[in-house]
C-alpha cells in the first residue's frame, strides 16, 4: 500500500478523524477558530494549511459521484489528494450566482460523464491561477513554474510556495481563457481506486441522511396519502387524536393527511387512529387485469406511431421464409429506497424557508419548495443530504418536497421533519412501468435474421414527470434498446403504444431496461430456432468495430464460453449498451427439479470509455446485479381496487445474502468517450439469467418475476 | 420516567412503555445512527445489541430493555479505535448509500462475538439484513476477512 493510502486509512480509522462531510445543522456548532478557506473559484476552496475542499453539484446516493468528481477536479488541480475533501454546492447559492456549478440533477448515470469536462476545466483553471499568483509574487514567468501535489516550484531560483500560501492572491486573478487537460493515460488521482469520502461517516452511523435532520425544537410528521392514485381526501375525524400526548396538529391537504407530533412514533400512532374518508376517484376499480387489458389493447392498435422504421419495416416480414413471434411482460416495480421519502422544512421567522432532504436534484427541490410555499426562490435554501438510495425515485418526482413544505406551513417557525412509513413508500411510488411487448422476427431461407418488428405497449415516464420533454408521441425511455438496436437487421420497425393507466411511473434504475430483457431473450430464441450459438449469432449481427462486440467477447472469454460449462451448470449471455456504456453479461446457473435456481457466477464486462474510480465502478456493477436479481426473481407491484397491494418487504423481497452469486467485473474502458456506471450494469441481468434458465430447463421465461414460474433462488 | 442504559451511559426518558426502542433512540436521545427501514422486523436497518444480542429495535418495546445493556452503532467503536467490523467495512468499501449499514454492522458484530470464525454458510444464514443497493458481495468479503482473522486493512485497495 502506498504511503498516501496508509495516511488516509490512519486518518479515517481513528475515531473522529478524517471526517469529510459537513452538514449544516445549527445544532452541530462548528468549532470556532477555524481559519476560513479561500474560494479560489466556485468549485474550489483552499485552506491556509493546504486542505482543498471541492464543491460538488451532483447528489450522492452511494454511487460514488461525490468522490469521483472531486478526483477529476483534483487531478487537474495537481493538489495533494490526501488533503482533499468535498462538500455539496448550495442550490440557493447556485441560483444567486447564476449556476456556476451547472445542473444538479443526478440521474441517467450522468453525474460524471456529463460534468467531467467542466469540472476538470475548473481544476485546471484554479491550478493556473495559483501558479500565476506564485509567479507574480516571485516576478517570474508562470511557464517556468511547476506544480507537484499542491507545491509550486520555481526551479531556477529554487523557491517554492504551497497552494495555501497563495490561494488568496490566486482568487483575485481572472481564470485563464484556455485550460489544457491532462491526458487520461497520465492521470495520477483520477483513474485510480480512491477511498470514497462518504464511507467513514456511514460506517460510524453519523447523521448524514435526510431522515437524520435534527434541529432545535423540531417536530415530526407521518403521512397518509389517498390509497388510490388520483383520489382525494374527503374528510378526517381527528377527535380521537387531538388530545393525544405529543400531538401538535393534523394537517389536511388535497390528497393526503398528516399528523405532526413530538416524535415520529407518536405522529404515526395518531395517524393510524384517524378516521379518514377518501374520495377514491375514477380509478377505484383498476386492477392488474384492467392494466393488462389496457396494454393488450395497445398491442392491437393498428394506428400506432413508429419509433423506428428502416428498410421495408414490418412489411418485410411478408417475404420472410419463416417468422418467429413472442410476447413478453414486465411488472411495475417500486424503487423501495431503504431510506423512505423524507423532507424537513422550516418556515423561519425571517421569511425564509429551509429544507433538509434526500434529493437527486437540489435545484428541483428548491423550485418545488418555492412554488409550494409561494416564496421567491431566493428565499429558499435546500440542504442536500446523503440519500439512503435513489435509483431515480428522488429526482423528477419531488412529491416529498411538496408535502414537507405543505405540512411545515401549518407550524410556522417550527422545523417539521416528514418521513414516510414503509407502507406509504411502497404504495406511493413512481414505479418502473409495466410493459407488454410483441416481437416478430423474419428469417430468410438460410435462417438469417432479416426483419424485426416490435410493438411496445408501455406507460410513458416523460408524460408523467416531464411532459414538456415529450415533443413527439414517442417516449424514448419506452422504446430504447429496441429502437436503437446495434444489430444489423436490414428491415426494422418499432411501434409504440403509449398506454398510461393511473399508476404513476418514473425513472427506475436504467429506465427502459425491460427492453433489454425482451430483446436479448428474443435474440436467444432466434439463436435456438436457427440452431446457432447465442454468442455466435450476436457477433454475426454486430458490425466489426462495434463496441458491443468487444464487451461480448470479454465476458465470453472470462466465462470460457467456448468450453462446456461444468456438469449440471448452464450459461446465458446478453449484451446491451445504454447510459453511455457498453455491457455484456454471462450468468451461470444450475436449476434443481424443484425449481431452485442457483446462480453461481455473474460476469459483467463494461466499456465506459474512461474509468475515474475503478473500485466504485465495480461496486456499482455488484450493486446493479444484486438489485436486478432481486427484481427478476421476486419483485412486482400489483394493483387491486386501484391501489398497490404490497405494503412492506415481506411482500417485496430483496435479494438475500445467500442468493448473491460470485460477481466478476471486467472493466474494459476503450477510451475516447465517457459512459456511465450507475445503471448500465442493470441491463443484461434479467436476459442473461433467463437465457441461462432456458439453457438449463428448456423453459422460455417471457414474463417476470420468476416466482410466478415456480422458480426461486437457491 | 424509564431508566435506560445505552452505550454504557444511563438515560431517562419519558415515553409510553410500548414505544419501540428505535424511536426512543432516534427522536428522544438523538442517536440517529440506528435506522428505520420497515418498522416490522423485516429489514434489520434498526439492529442494535441488547445484552449482546442483535435485536431489531423497531419491534422491541422500550419496556423490554429496562435493566439491560443497549449498544447502538454510536457505541460500537472504542475511545481510540474503530470496532474491527467498522475497520473491515472501510477497508472493503462496503457501504453504497450506507443506510442499511449501521444495522448490517451491528448484526455482523453480534455474530462475530458469538462465533468469531463463522463459515460462509453461517454468515449467509445469520446476516438476513436487507440492502437495496446490493452490497452483498462486499459484506461477504469483509465478513470472510474478519472470520479468517486476516487483518482487515488490505481490503479493496491493495494495489
Ligand atoms: S426497521 Fe426494524 S427491521 Fe426494518
Ligand atoms: S448500502 Fe444502500 S441499502 Fe445497503
| CATH uppermost class of the largest domain in chain B | Alpha Beta
Per the principal axes of the C-alpha atoms, what is the gross shape of chain A? globular
Report the mean per-residue pLDDT of chain B as an integer. Answer: 94
- Strand content range of chain B: 5-15%
What is the CATH C-level name of the largest domain in chain A?
Alpha Beta
Name the beta content range of chain A. Answer: 15-25%
Poorly predicted tracts of residues of chain B:
none
Characterization of this structure:
The complex is a heterodimer of chains A (714) and B (159). Chain A is an alpha+beta fold. Chain A has three domains: 35-197, Aldehyde oxidase/xanthine dehydrogenase, molybdopterin binding domain (Aldehyde Oxidoreductase, domain 4, 2-Layer Sandwich); 210-281 and 341-419, Aldehyde Oxidoreductase, domain 4 (2-Layer Sandwich), CATH 3.30.365.10; 288-333 and 431-713, Aldehyde oxidase/xanthine dehydrogenase, molybdopterin binding domain (Aldehyde Oxidoreductase, domain 4, 2-Layer Sandwich), CATH 3.30.365. Chain A contains 18 helices and 28 strands. Chain A has a seven-stranded mixed beta sheet with strand order 10-11-8-18-15-16-17. In chain A, strand 3, helix 2 (65-77) and strand 4 (84-88) form a beta-alpha-beta unit. The two termini of chain A are 38 Å apart. Residues 1-33 of chain A have low confidence and may be disordered. Chain B is 31% helix and 13% strand. Chain B has a five-stranded mixed beta sheet, sandwiched between helices. Chain B has helices spanning 21-28, 84-91, 101-114, 120-126, 136-147; strands spanning 2-6, 9-13, 47-50, 53-56, 69-71. With 159 residues, chain B is an alpha+beta fold. The model of chain B has no long low-confidence stretch (mean pLDDT 94). Chain B is globular. Chains A and B meet through helix 1, helix 6 and helix 17 of A and helix 1, helix 2, helix 3, helix 4 and helix 5 of B. The structure holds FE2/S2 (inorganic) cluster (FES) (2 copies). One FE2/S2 (inorganic) cluster sits between chains B (95-101, 131-133, 135) and A (62, 338, 389). One FE2/S2 (inorganic) cluster (FES) sits between chains B (95-101, 131-133, 135) and A (62, 338, 389).
